[in-house]
Amino acid sequence: MPDPESRLPPLRDVIAKHGLNARKSLGQHFLFDLNLTGRIVRTASQFLPPPAGDLTLGTVIEIGPGPGGLTRALLGAGTGNLVAIEKDHRCVAALAELADSYPGRLEVRETDALTLDAARIGAAPRRIIANLPYNISTPLLLRWLADVAHDPAAFSGFVLMFQSEVADRLTARPRSKAYGRLSVITQWLCHVQPLFEVPARAFTPPPKVDSTVVGLRPRPKPLAAADMSMLERVTAAAFGQRRKMLRQSLKSLGTDAGALLTATGVPETARAEELEVEEFCALARALANQTAG
Questions:
Q1: Would you identify the CATH topology of the domain 4-218?
Q2: What is the pTM of this model?
Q3: Which fold would CATH assign to domain 228-292?
């Protein structure tokens, strides 16, 4: 039996047939380079621990597949149960043709990823591998991290492409310019690793920024005890006025900032960018105690 990939038309022909000009409103930048899509899949298999790296098992979810460049690479690598989430109805028809070439292995859902409960799709190990639309990448990640906070086993891992600026924030360490709320929440729940960079010229149309593929593996349990909603409140207050000392910035919480800092041993003169993730967690626990009292 011939390889399904050998029977597929070139992606550029698919785009012409279905009129798939990239739409800025959907954050679309198509990736045609087969070497790059193949590298994303190979890197995902290496980064995700067994059995999550075995793409024939469980469920792989792809967000915003567009005409299906990465989708083809995932299927070509033997992905057994691939669920593609696509909002653009123009792309759904093209993806349906791809599904016909791989019977029973690709499910296409026409829906908005921001409204989807990805943690309930398919069977474990559940992984998300995607070139995320730039305009919704951070809200999507925070939604999935909330799932991980509730159940660390909800996802076995993520291999995601972000704008390099966002990737820098995910991996940033304290006392760096990129360190902020997203750094704290992500690193609290996941081991995060930049995997490789993708230049803007690799996309059609090319975006104005380069991209980075990032791997995230959920920790068996969070780095330190904290309630996510309290941690988000603390980091929002602290980084919302990051140049101010915490004794000032935390006043926006509407509680006794001095008492919070005293309870956790964090210096009142410290600034948000100086704190480790565990210290933010301590502040979140202290805030929860104050709120409960």
A1: Rossmann fold (3.40.50)
A2: 0.94
A3: Helicase, Ruva Protein; domain 3 (1.10.8)
